[in-house]
Amino acid sequence: MTEYGMLIDYEYCTGCKTCEIACKQEYERPAGKVGGVEVTEFVHTLPNDKLFITNIPHFTRACVFCAGRVKQGLTPACVKHCMARVLTFGKIEDLVKLIPEKRKAILWTKG
Amino acid sequence: MKKDGVKIIKTTTWSPGPGCHGGCGILVHVKDNKVIKVEGDPDHPWNQGRLCSRCLSMTQYMYHKDRLRKPLKRVGERGEGKFEEISWEEAFDLIEEKMKKIRDDYGPESVIFHQGTGRDIGGWISMLAYAFGSPNWMFGLSGISCYTPRLMMMSITQGDFAVVDASQWLEKRYDDPEYKIPETVIIWGQNLPATCPDGFFGHWYVDLMKRGTELIVIDPRCTWIASRAKIWLQLRPGTDAALALGFIHVMIKENLINMDFIEKWTNSPHLVRTDGKIPVFLKEKDIREDGSDLNFVAHDAISGDFMIWDTTAQAYDKTGVKASMDGAFNITLANGSKASVKTVWTLYKENAEQYTPKKVEDITWVPAEKIRQAARMYAKAKPGALHWGLPIDTIPSTVPTSQALNHLWCLTGNLDIPGGNAIARYAFDVVTYPYHSGGAILSLPPEVMNKRIGIHDYGCIKDFRAWAQPDKVLEQIFSGSPYPIKGMWIQTANPIACTGMEPQKWHKAIKKLDFTVCVDLFMTPTAMLCDVILPAATFLEKDSLKAWWVPLNAIKKVVDVEECKSDIEINLELCKRFMKDFPFPNTRVLFDSLLKSAGITYQELCDNTWMLPPEGHPSKPYLRYERGLLRPDKKQGFRTPSGKIELFSSWLEKWGLDPMPYHEEPPYSHISTPDLFKDYPLILATGRRMGPFFHSEHRQIPWLREQQKEPVLEIHPDTARKYGIEHGEKVCVENWLGKITVKALVTPVIHPNVVMAEHGWWFPEKEGREPSLFGVWDVNVNQLIPMGHEGKAGLGAPIKSMLCKVYKAKG
């Protein structure tokens, strides 16, 4: 899966953590154990005193890019259920092409 | 569909389970008669394949070890936690015997039928109450402060409800050529991504933002969506009416209103007498001896004569006229005396004139210049829309506040247009949950309905919605006057942990009654006090249907979980026992009867899963007031007394309330109660939404609870410093009514003068028996909020704007 990656359009991540639960359901992971993805909220007071909230979904070592689902032609469970639709899964070369049209994005790869 | 022995079934969400107001299309994976996975249905236009964390946790919910699986009968003292399992037959027999005894001894009105928020229950619990013969169907939140005030105000102002049009009536959604993306949406008091309220999916706003919608967010807290807004207005809780009137002031002054729309579709030219103590409409009967009380009077700018607005004909009694919008006139009445009158529009402008941005800044803390900017941005948007939230209901001034906000979309002509505020009716006119006094499955004779608690106290309780007024109910449980209350049927509600303000009083009240039943899925602090507990099914274990706006959805039974029964089946069985000739032998017959207006059977609905109303149907937008689709007589206009949008309200006048919007100071504040404010210098707001939980639910669901272990109090860093409070430490929140101890969440998102406490907390893992009741008394913030402070209309309560002090907890 090294040629695959996840493009995270984090500008619109609302921090609902649906991705975390979608992953836990898919792999029946018990509470208390980390799943394939976690979301962290940052509350920043910008230099102009404006408050700004950013949520970043980030993937853990437990993420397997839902290889089984992908093989069946499905998207990873987190991508499918993301309420804000900020996750795009695909080949890195295709995802890179999408970056210019994204306002703010992170490309996550497994190396 | 079958694959590896896995069957996939399409259905629709609605509580119980995710708890919420539902509407998402889902695919349920079932193996060996057990649900193994739940996913979003990509073909459903509502959620388009997405699904939130509460629904994705359904397997943990359904098969939870603590789930109630058999009926329970209390065998110890109330609250002692001693219950014995009984069969359904025994449970039904016991309930029938006890409730019939109360009915025989005291009358059917002595039993209260108590529900919680907008779950799949309104139709079925009112059916049970009426089959039993009681008019006292109740939602227990003080002042019925959840959507009912806004629904009532929309209903009397524009004859119909409305919600923001996020293309939910169109199968192709945002891509439908008929749809327009709103240029600007005001989100007034709601943290949308954390909630799906009022027949609306919160994340539709993220879809709209990506498509170019700009936001104005009005909230004392900087939520994620507020931080993404073009303009964020951080107002003082409970002063929303003043802010809306400030918008109206600016819009009128700068001519940013849609005058063509106002002239044509509002009652602005109608005349109001201004010579009495309070302004009242001038009616035809006032100027003609044989005149009607239903017809209004206007002034013809062409001839200078007065003329009659005939509400039956929906026309003036003269042709070739042009109604004067502005002016003050003297008129001779039928009895020969003189009266001074003004047009509604003149009075309306005079009213708005008082709310200058400077004055509004003083009331709301929102800078005058920002008020102007926001008013301009909204009024200039084509289309513009306004989304409002629960904080508009949870204040005692909810009526004038809802009215002012409703006027904003009317003054700009954004009503029932693509991307504006679209009129929302039940899809295909199918009523599963009646939001006004009509539409219930059964009915009671007027002399019985006349005993409904609150009906003689408040006009809008009498005329608008068939609920008993909860503050008056609680009072009557203790007073026994005018008749005693002896029993309570509690279903989809947890008043001790959630809906009950001053839960100390609800606790005493429930324990005082002769017989109480609680229908729920888990043992709760409320169920612990009851005599019989019935185990309810989740939405995956029951057949039902949903028509909360659109689409019309089927809810299909997928599996059974032990002996759990659906709320509908429970109520239907008891209806048969309580009512001779109860007309529905089973749920199928009942559903088919409810679906008559759609012209389909329940089986046909199940085959389709969801259906959107077709073009030309009154439950499908747009511009229905122009097309004669809103009124029963098929004439253009609205279902209001005048047939127009009423900027000066006939109904409010009738109920003895101020017919135009105004600012009312919250009952507890530095202005209203300066002495209390000295001791309790912080504004206490509650009720903000918590993503993983729906109100008091889900604290026992492992995947959800791990996201938040315990309740927090949001407090600003400056305020925390002032009181020596560190992030993460335990603090006491206290006022003259009570005290709780919770964890401080020190965060700049909250206004320094406000603290935000979470509601609905209890700990399923703690001791359930009294006095603990799952630790509810340590953390339930409602102990700091009074009952009996409902607004002047019987609606609204001071839930968003109490006073408190905060200090470090000992030890």
Give a written overview of the molecule.
The complex is a heterodimer of chains A (111) and B (811). With 111 residues, chain A is an alpha+beta fold. Chain A has a domain at 10-84: 2-Layer Sandwich (Alpha-Beta Plaits), CATH 3.30.70. Chain A has helices spanning 18-27, 67-71, 77-81, 92-98; strands at residues 4-8, 37-45, 51-59, 87-91, 106-109. In chain A, strands 4-1-5 form a 3-stranded antiparallel sheet. Chain A has a two-stranded antiparallel ribbon with strand order 2-3. Chain A starts with a strand and ends with a strand. By secondary structure, chain B is α/β, with parallel strands linked by helices. Among the domains of chain B are: 2-62, Phosphorylase Kinase, domain 1 (2-Layer Sandwich); 72-146 and 432-542 and 564-585, 3-Layer(aba) Sandwich (Rossmann fold), CATH 3.40.50.740; 674-808, Barwin-like endoglucanases, CATH 2.40.40.20. Chain B has 26 helices and 33 strands. In chain B, the strands form 8 sheets. In chain B, strands 6-5-24-23-22-7-8 form a 7-stranded mixed sheet, covered by helices on one side. In chain B, helix 8 runs parallel beside helix 14. The longest helix of chain B has 19 residues, at 88-106. Chain B is globular and about 80 Å long.
What's this entry about, in short?
In chain A, 24% of the residues lie in helices and 29% in strands. Chain A is an alpha+beta fold and 111 residues long.
